[in-house]
C-alpha cells in the first residue's frame, strides 16, 4: 500500500510507523489519520509491536490548520483522531511512542495513548489549545489515564511546555536517554519475545479495567465539534496560521 503522510518499515514482529508531514511541522490531518488506521489494520497479522515515531526535531505539533483559510473547517476529523488514539491504547499490539524534539496539542494525545513512551533528552510536551479558546477534548481522556487529572489540568491551563525530565517524573514518559534509539533497541529485545495472543488477552483485560476511553468517546468528539463551530475561535486560528501572531499580539 502506498502512503503519503506516513512511512512504514516492517521488521516482524516490529512495525516502525513514522508520521511524515514535514511541510506542515508533522501536523495531523485526515489523510495522516486514515493512513495510520489503514496501516494498523493491515499489519494486524504481521506485527505485534508498533513503534510510532516523528521527525528528528519534532514528534508532532498538533492539528494541521493549513486548510482553514480555504475550507473554513479543520483538516482533522475528531472521530478519526479519537479512533487512532483508541487503537494505540486498546489494539492487540504493544504501541511505543519514540519521541524526539517538540510535541504539542494533538501530538501529546498520540503519545499519551501509547502503551510505552520512550524519549530522548530533547523532548518537550505542551498543550497550547487554550491560547486559541480551545481545549484538548479528545486528548484528555488518554492524558488523564496516563498522568492523572491534576497534572493534565495544569498542562492544559499553563499552556507551557514541560521537558523530558518533568514528563518522566509525571509519568507521561516511561524512560528517557540521551540516545533514545539505543533505549528503544533495549526495550525491543525483550518485547519481541511476547506473543500476539498474550498481548491481545492482556490488552483486552486492561480495557475492561479502564473502560473510560470508550465511555468518553462521544463526549470528547461532541466537545471538539462545538469548539470548532465558533467563528471567533476559527478566526483566531486562521490569523495565527497566516501571520504567526497569537490572539493578543498586534
From TrEMBL:
SUPFAM superfamilies: ClpP/crotonase. Pfam families: ECH_1. It comes from the Bacteria. GO terms for molecular function: catalytic activity. Belongs to the enoyl-CoA hydratase/isomerase family. This is Polyketide biosynthesis enoyl-CoA hydratase. It comes from Methylocucumis oryzae.
Amino acid at each position: 500500500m502506498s502512503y503519503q503522510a506516513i512511512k512504514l518499515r516492517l521488521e516482524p514482529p516490529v512495525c516502525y510507523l513514522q508520521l511524515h508531514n514535514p511541510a506542515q511541522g508533522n501536523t495531523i490531518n485526515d489523510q495522516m489519520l486514515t493512513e495510520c488506521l489503514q496501516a494498523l489494520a493491515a499489519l494486524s497479522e504481521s506485527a505485534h509491536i508498533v513503534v510510532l515515531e516523528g521527525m528528528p526535531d519534532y514528534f508532532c505539533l498538533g492539528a494541521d490548520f493549513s486548510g482553514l483559510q480555504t475550507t473554513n473547517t479543520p483538516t482533522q476529523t475528531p472521530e478519526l483522531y479519537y479512533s487512532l488514539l483508541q487503537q494505540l491504547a486498546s489494539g492487540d499490539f504493544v504501541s511505543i511512542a519514540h519521541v524526539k524534539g517538540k510535541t504539542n496539542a494533538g501530538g501529546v494525545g498520540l503519545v499519551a495513548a501509547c502503551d510505552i513512551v520512550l524519549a530522548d533528552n530533547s523532548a518537550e510536551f505542551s498543550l497550547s489549545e487554550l491560547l486559541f479558546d480551545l481545549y484538548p477534548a479528545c486528548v484528555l481522556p488518554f492524558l488523564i489515564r496516563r498522568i492523572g487529572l491534576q497534572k493534565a489540568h495544569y498542562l492544559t491551563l499553563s499552556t507551557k511546555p514541560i521537558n523530558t525530565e518533568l514528563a518522566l517524573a509525571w509519568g507521561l514518559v516511561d524512560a528517557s536517554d540521551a540516545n533514545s534509539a539505543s533505549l528503544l533497541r533495549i526495550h525491543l529485545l525483550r518485547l519481541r519475545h511476547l506473543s500476539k495472543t498474550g498481548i491481545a488477552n492482556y490488552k483486552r483485560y486492561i480495557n475492561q479495567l479502564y473502560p473510560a476511553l470508550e465511555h468518553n468517546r462521544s463526549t470528547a468528539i461532541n466537545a471538539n465539534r462545538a469548539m470548532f463551530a465558533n467563528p471567533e475561535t476559527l478566526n483566531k486560528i486562521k490569523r495565527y496560521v497566516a501571520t504567526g501572531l497569537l490572539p493578543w499580539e498586534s
